[in-house]
Every structure is written in C-alpha cells, then in structure tokens.
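Quick one: co-fold with magnesium ion.
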Amino acid sequence: YQGLAGRSTDEVLQLCAAHGQQMKLQRSSLVTQLHGAIKRLKQDLKSLHSFALELSKDFQRQNKTCLYQVLVAVQGIQLQNEAMQMFQMKAFDLEQSLQEVTERYEKEKQKRKALHNSLIELRGNIRVHCRIRPLLPFDDAAGHLLSQDRQRNVSEKAAYAADDETVLVKCSRPGHASVNKTFQFDRVYNDLESQDAVFADVAPLLTSLLDGYNVCIMAYGQTGSGKTYTMLGPQLEENLAFSIEEESELGIIPRATQEVFRLISEKPPGSYWVEVSVVEVYNNEIFDLLAKDSYGKVFGIKRDVVTTREGKSDVPLLTHETVENASEFLHLVNKGLQLRVTHPTLVHAHSSRSHLVVTLTITTVVFGDNFGTLWEDEQTSQRLSKEASCTFPQKMRDNKSTSSSGASSPVQLEATEKMKQVKTRLQLVDLAGSECVGMSGVTGAALRETSFINRSLSALADVLGAIAEQRAHVPYRNSKLTHLLQDSVGGDAKLLVMLCISPGQKYLTESMQSLGFGTRARQVQRGQVKKKNFPVPSKGK
Ligand code: ADP
Ligand code: MG
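Sure, here it is.
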C-alpha cells in the first residue's frame, strides 16, 4: 500500500480490479485442474471397483470348482475305502475258508493215512517209502563242483519229490525218448528231508514191535543212492563203520535201537531183553559178523539158513549177543561192520557188494500159570505156547548175566514163577546195490559178485511176484537172501521198503528200475499182518 500512495483512486481501483481478475483466473484454472483430477480419480476408482468385483467373482467361481473337486475326490476316496474294506473282508473270508479247507484237508489226509495204514495191515501190504537224496559233487560226470555251475546241475535232475507221496521222473535228453512219469508211495522224502524226518515215520513201527509185531525195514536202491546213509548214517572214511558222534546224522538202525531201548525202559524191569545178530550175505553165502573163535578173535564165519519144522527160516549157530543199551549195540554193530573189510574173501569188496542184515530179537517174558488163557483167541494161544520156549538168552545161559535196569535177569524169578518167552524180531537190511552192471568187460571176482547180487535181487523180486500172484509155491530158497528174509517178506512182519533214489539224469535207468520194484512191492498183498498178543504181566511182578 506504500506503492499506492500517491496514486489516484482510479488507478488504485483499476489495479485492484486487475489483481482480482488475475486471481479469479488463477483460481478457476486450479478448479478445472482439480476437477479433472477428481474425475480421473473417480474413473480409476470405478475401474478398480469393477476389477475388484470381477476378482471376487472369479475367486468365488474358482473356489466353487475347487470345493467341488475336493468333494468329488473325498467321495472317490470314500468309495475306494469302502471297496477296500469290502476287499479286505472278502480276503479275510477267503483266508478263513482257505484255512478251514486246509485244516479239513489235513484232517482228511490224516484219516486217509490211518485208513490206508489199516488197509495195508488188513491186506498185509508192504509199505514203500522213497527217499530222493540231494545231488552231490560226485554226481557230476565232468567232475565240476556243484556250486560252480548250480543251474546246469539242477537242470540235470531227473527225479523229484512232487509231494510227500509222489515221485516225478521228468527228463528229456537229446537222442533219448523223453520221460514224464509219476509214482505213488506211502511216503516220499525230498532231498532236503533230514534223518529225523525219515525216522519219524519209522518210529511207530517200533511201537508195533513191542506190541507184538515182527518188523522189517529194508533199503533198496543202486550203489550211491543213500541206502547205507539212510540205514546207518554217514560212513567214516577209513573203514566201513559209521560215525556214532554225529547224532543228527544217525540213520535208522542206531535210532531204532535207541527207540527200542527207550520203549523197553517204560516197561516193567526184566520183562524184555534184546539180542543182536549181524550177518552179511555175500556171493550167496551168509557170514556171521559177530562170531568169535575160542580165542575171542573174530572171523568171517559162514552160517547156513534152514527152514524149521514150523516153516520158519532159521540160522543155526548164529551168534546172538545180548545188549543192554543202544551204545552197546552200536559198538557191536560197528565192530561187525569193520569185519567186513578184513574178511578174507572180501578184501576188495565194496560195502555195497553185499547185503547187510542186522537183527534185533526182543524176548518178552510172561509170568504165571494162566499163560495160555491170557491170549486173545485159542489159536493164537496154542501157536504162541508152541513158539514160546524156555531157553534163556545166550548171556544168561552162559551164566554171566549182568543185572541192569531194562534187562535185569529173570533168572532169580525162575524158581518161583512159571515163565514163558515170546520173541519178536526187528530186521534191518541194507541191500547190495541194485544196478545191473553190464557184464561185458567184467571178469573174475567182480563178475562173480555182480552176478550173485543180480541173482539175489531178482530172487527177491520173484518172491514178491509169487506172493502177489498168490502162487502156491514161493521160491524163497532160490537165494540165501530171500531164504534168510523169508519170514519178514512173506510172513507176518510189518515190512517197510525204503527205496533210495539218486536224482541225477545219468541214473535214470537205475532209478526207474528201483521205482518199478517199489511199485510192485507196494501192490503185494500178503496174509493179514499178525500180532502176537502179549498179556500184560499181572501187577507186582
Ligand atoms: P549206498 O549205500 O546206496 O551205496 P551211500 O549211503 O553210501 O549209498 O551214499 C552215497 C553217498 O551219498 C555218501 O557219501 C552219503 O553220505 C551221501 N548221501 C546219501 N544220502 C544222502 C542224503 N540224504 N543227504 C546227504 N548225503 C547223502
Ligand atoms: Mg552202501
């Protein structure tokens, strides 16, 4: 306002108006600008709003689809779960019914076995078991060890245990007719089955033995098929004895003896005693492997087999040693076996070139006057009264009876009691190799041996054939072997033939021969297996 001083009122008025004008102009342009900005903002806001709306709609849509998908998935899972549960239930049901069927099958199988056993007893059939031994290094012709080429060796097998009653022989070789054949037996052991498993089926026969049945167990098969292993156990390298130390490897003969003594230990003391004889049939001659001369030295002494008036076979003068426990028996048998090697006529003979027969005679003492009336029927009583003898076992005759648990001497009782004895017999036979060695090129002693073995084994087959055909004449006397085994093979013994089979292809012919022998043996029907009914000695004795 100092500048205005001195100016005229008009000028001031003009200046003020101009200034007002200017201000007005400035303000209006600012307002326009502001307006524009607000408009743009509004537009932005609008588009943002519509974008947000779109976004939310989109989100809702997507949400819905997701939810739907989740729902579908959950439903699917539920369905699957249900189906799974159904399957599980079905599987459970199936498992249960399978178990039931298996149990029923096992029961039926047991029943069938029991029935089969009674049928065998009624018909007097011969039981035939078959053991297939494992492939062994010496089976390989080229001399390869098994482990080096297992696959090839496995494919070389020709005999298998299809199940525990069936042998399958399957083989196709270039240049040979292919073979695919099955054989049924009472029991078939595969190559993994132990000595334990084999003996488990033999043990019931030993109960029968003490119940009054004669029992015979005979191993048949070609050389190297496992007869001696099955009957005795693995043989020691240096001699023909078998190892007594390897308990789990022991064969039927030692185990059977242990079982017999165990069974006897459950009976009243002094009522049973056991005698042993060991013979060898070589070149159709019987050698007494327990015989001693007057100096106590052992020799291969020959014996003969005769038929008694009762039609039984007997070996007069045969050495019977009384044994009181299993280890005494084992040492005795081992001593006898070693004799086979030093035997003068047998210097070069392989063990499988002779038949070995170990016999356990079990004498049961029956006390009392009413002996005859205690038997089940008149005939049996008469038969047994006749059979029963009052001879004492050798040890007692020799008056050097040793009193011990199982077989304490009945001598003391003799004065006061009327005593009768009944004998049952367990015959254990390791036959010579059944292979039919080609005769060409074989001379001298070997030819003699082979022809004797072939003759004795075909005599055995002939005897079985004659019994099977129920011929009036059974040619027991065609060979010393069949004559010796007459009562077991044709008589009233429970007879078990243990077929031994080598599984290799190269033994196919021999295996088929053995399986054929076993099949024929199984069909043989003898008279009913007879039991010597023992009366239970009255209490206090
Ligand atoms: P064989 O008496 O029939 O001539 P061996 O019993 O001497 O035959 O058996 C021949 C070989 O095979 C022996 O070395 C024996 O130890 C072995 N062997 C036989 N059977 C079996 C088996 N089941 N398991 C293992 N080795 C066996
Ligand atoms: Mg042998």
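If it helps, Residues 26-123 form one domain.
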